[in-house]
Design brief:
alpha+beta; Porin; two-stranded antiparallel sheet
Length: 340
């Protein structure tokens, strides 16, 4: 219990520190957006300067000035549906879709709890009883966007505090990943990119006390109510002792995470496949495939967006895989995003 309280303090302090860094940037953006306002129609200063010399600009301003700006509210489904269609028509994503997209250019603060009460303990192909994994973990994930002229860098830090079957608790191998997205690979409704992955040493009772390295790549897209994509990760060293049995390999399993979310109208409710990571063990040439379902709701506010969801997951294909296979897993999550 004492280690858990210490973990909450560390995660909370880190979250508050990064949130404190994000708020001035958000406030500066809000102030900039108010610098030029024409009868309820907000215009960015640089956009105004760049298009003011175009023919018909004055007529366009006169036309838009007569139409009041639409407010975004979770209690106005028709308005949100129209906003979603307009955003897609303009080659972009609306706020609800951005809340589901971890590759969008926005500050993101995620806090989640996942509990795995039971595992499959059948006899594996090597004659041994299948090992169990961690009992539960708390997760803090923070994304700090860096928008440059020709590319966007999305550094992401993931901290997890585990508790294993033996009652030991401690921080796992903290992940630091930077997704690099060139502008020509961002088409508004989706994007693709790749970047380096580094894992920091963790508590040797629940993780590996060593550095690790690797890379990850992502490709996502949104069409109407659908948001979908793939995330690939490959790392070496910092082998998770609960993911594979002890051995001489320094290669972690290849991770493939399919992403599928479907928005249920414009109310903010949605369904998804959850945080399921398919693993391929290079040593044994075997696959582990989980399956899950996520049910959540997005709340769009003027100051940012909240995403609440619950998730269930189990193992689908695991018989030939020489590692833990969860029987029942439950997850609750709260994510807050701030647009850039």
């Amino acid at each position: 219990m004492r280690t858990r309280i210490q973990a909450f303090f560390v995660m909370g302090a880190a979250c508050l520190l990064l949130l404190g860094a994000a708020l001035p940037a958000w406030a500066q953006g809000q102030e900039a957006s108010r610098e030029v306002s024409l009868k309820g129609f907000q215009v960015d200063t640089w956009d105004l300067l760049s298009v003011s010399h175009q023919p018909g600009f004055a007529a366009a301003l006169d036309h838009t000035a007569k139409e009041p700006r639409k407010a975004v509210s979770n209690n106005a489904p028709e308005a949100e549906s129209q906003d979603s269609q307009e955003a897609e028509a303009e080659g972009g994503q609306d706020e609800q879709t951005k809340a589901l997209d971890s590759t969008a250019t926005q500050w993101s603060f995620q806090f989640a709890y996942q509990v795995m009460p039971d595992y499959h303990q059948d006899t594996m192909d090597n004659g041994e009883v299948r090992p169990v994994g961690s009992d539960d973990y708390w997760q803090l994930r923070v994304l700090v966007p860096v928008a440059l002229k020709h590319l966007t860098i999305l550094p992401r830090i993931t901290m997890r505090h585990y508790k294993n079957a033996q009652g030991d608790a401690g921080f796992g191998n903290t992940e630091v990943f930077a997704l690099i997205i060139p502008k020509f690979l961002d088409w508004g409704t989706g994007r693709t990119g790749a970047g380096p992955l580094v894992t920091l040493p963790g508590n040797d009772k629940v993780a590996r006390d060593e550095w690790g390295y690797g890379f990850a790549a992502a490709a996502v897209n949104s069409t109407g109510p659908w948001f979908y994509g793939l995330l690939f990760t490959q790392s070496w060293r910092s082998i998770d002792p609960t993911a594979l049995p002890p051995g001489g390999s320094n290669t972690n399993p290849l991770g493939i995470a399919p992403i599928v979310n479907f928005r249920l109208g414009a109310s903010g409710w949605y369904l998804g496949n959850g945080d399921m990571v398919i693993r391929y063990d290079w040593s044994t040439k075997k696959w582990y495939v989980p399956i899950g379902v996520r049910f959540g709701k997005v709340f769009v506010q003027d100051y940012g967006t909240w995403n609440f969801y619950g998730e269930y997951q189990t193992s689908l294909l695991y018989k030939s895989y020489l590692g833990p296979a969860v029987k029942n897993s439950f997850r609750i999550n709260l994510t807050f995003t701030i647009p850039v």
